[in-house]
Amino acid sequence: MRTLSAAMLAHLASDVQTLATLWTITRTDGQVFGFTDLDQPITYGGVTYQSAGGYTHSQIDMTSDMSTSNLEVNAIFDSSAITPASLEAGQWDYARVQVSLVNYADLTMGAVLLESGVLGQVVLLNGTYKAELRGLAQVMQQEQGQTYSPTCRAVFGDARCQIDLGPLTFSGSIASVAGLASWNDPTLTQVGPTVSFTDTRGQKVPTHTPFTIQIVPPTGGSFVADTSVRDNSQGTLTKVTGSPGNNQYSVSASGLYTFNSSAAGNEYFISYTYAIGFFAYGLVTFTSGQNAGFSMEVKSFSPGVVTLAMALPYPLAVGDTYTIKAGCDKQFGTCRDRYSNIVHFRGEPYIPGPDTILRPQG
């Protein structure tokens, strides 16, 4: 139910109206922005609403049956606050929006709340963007609560995890760029723990040359050393330094296993040790350069080399500074062995999964 002042109600009933809409947008990082469709700024309620006349919006679809109300806004990029890069980086995702109506000629009449909700899908096209405003009923259509999972459901370092990220947070700067989403920083010398991996699924040697298998360690880690290679009958192959013969293999420092042509199509179980990347699955936040303020998850890390999960909106540049936090792969073993935080583990690793339940019994 909307509440209107007597003065606003009389103004809406008059033949001549001086109305403007105010959009109050509160991002998830706490920053508040105001925009209006008037051709000049409006200051109301302590917020200055910048003129953004280059936008149009649809009618508000609202019903009394608790179905989701929605509204679409089409606008051009004419504000320094809303840029294509910031939208693509997700800075405006799930921002809270409140749309109000005021008499710009007499702000003492108060504001009429038209709609409130959160920003949904955003589409960019030819210098314009289309944003969807989802009503609060949208929340009621989403599944709430937690479900059983073998991995931890807590966010690393949050109130449920309770790990102190202070000692796990470091600063650095880009010494050289190694790709669209990777760079070198010799000051990052942190080394994660070395753990063993026992292959229980098996790997197949290609049926054509080269007869090689490249090991990709889990948790964004790096290959350390070979442990063993076994066949289906639990027989152990022999490791050699040169070209392998029958029932032999060689392995490089990067974890590239090479087999003899007689092994083509065979299945082997490769066990090895690997170093967990200290910052793998962590978070990088840039503090200078074009990407200042943007954050991205770390895909993998080895001493001096950071690789992000995705490229940032702007190219990486030498000298850009950042903060980087260690991460967690949410596995039971990592929580127990690396962080000694098993008492706060939010997962159920011992509940049988569908593969166990549905497999033939007896």
UniProtKB/TrEMBL annotation:
It comes from the Bacteria. The keyword Nucleotide-binding does not apply. Residues 277-355 form the Bacteriophage phiJL001 Gp84 C-terminal domain. Keywords: Plasmid. The keyword Cell inner membrane does not apply. This is Bacteriophage phiJL001 Gp84 C-terminal domain-containing protein. It comes from Paraburkholderia phymatum (strain DSM 17167 / CIP 108236 / LMG 21445 / STM815).
